[in-house]
Amino acid sequence: MRNLWGLTIFLVLSVLVLVSCELDHGLGPVRSVGRTNPDTTAYEPGDTIPGIQGKIYFQGDWPENPAQAFIAASPEYPLSNLLIILNYYTELDSSIFFADSCDYFLRLSNYDEDKEFAIVGFGLLCEGEWYGPNMVKGIYASPDDPNEPLPVRVPAGRPAKNVDIIVDFDNPPILEMPVLVQ
User: Fold this and answer.
1) Residue 65 — very low, low, confident or very high, per pLDDT cuts 50/70/90?
2) What is the rounded CA–CA span in Å between residue 118 and residue 91?
3) Residue by residue, what is the 3-state secondary structure of the chain?
4) What whole-number percentage of the chain has pLDDT above 90?
5) In degrees, to the nearest 5, what angle opens at C-alpha 50 toward C-alphas 123 and 95?
């Protein structure tokens, strides 16, 4: 009987610990802080979380059945392996589906030196789709060529800001990407 009480107390405490933990549910739309400086390395005092932040602008009609949206970055482009983006990736909250725009922040590990990313992009998977080249719907790109990714330098210990992405669902970027076999 004593073991039963001990087990019960252990289970109740375990559940209480799990319930009291704050879980991160990804990124969702947030209020804009009004930063309009086009310098992606500009920062304000107190900006100490390394990452990439910006705004995503959606153009055209959203697909009918979006299932997963994310921001990803890669230090290399063209990618030698599509899975490399999983090192620099964060899923976005489904509340952005069908929005006109949303803010995002891709948190990175703290680096002792600047880190450069060759491509930063927005990906979207609809129900029943697999990871592959068609999932990329928009990238941080040159205004003259939406298919040409612009590199992003993340200063050591600071965020790169104003890395805005335009997603045109009717004209997604044409990128050099490896194909995953299903």
Assistant:
1) very high
2) 20
3) CHHHHHHHHHHHHHHHHHHHCCCCCCECCCCCCCCCCCCCCCCCCCCCCCEEEEEEEEECCCCCCEEEEEEEEECCCCCCCHHHHHHCEEEECHHHCCCCEEEEEEECCCCCCCEEECEEEEEEEECCCCCCHHHEEEECEECCEEEEECCEEECCCCEECCCCEEEECCCCCCCCCCCCCC
4) 47
5) 35
Angle (nearest 5°) at CA 84 between 121 and 112 = 85
**Structural contact between residues 152 and 73, judged by C-beta atoms closer than 8 angstroms:** yes
Structural contact between residues 52 and 160, judged by C-beta atoms closer than 8 angstroms: yes
0.90 surpassed by pTM? no
Instruction: Tell whether the model's pLDDT for residue 164 goes beyond 80.
Output: yes
pLDDT in tens, 40-49: 444 454 567 8
How does pLDDT run across 17-59, given as a tens digit for each residue?
444 444 444 444 433 333 333 444 444 545 678 899 999 999 9
Virtual torsion, Cα 42, 44, 49, 52, nearest 10 deg: -30
Round to whole Å and give the CA distance between 22 and 11.
Answer: 19
Q: Would you state the structure tokens that stand for residue 127, as one six-digit string?
A: 């129900």
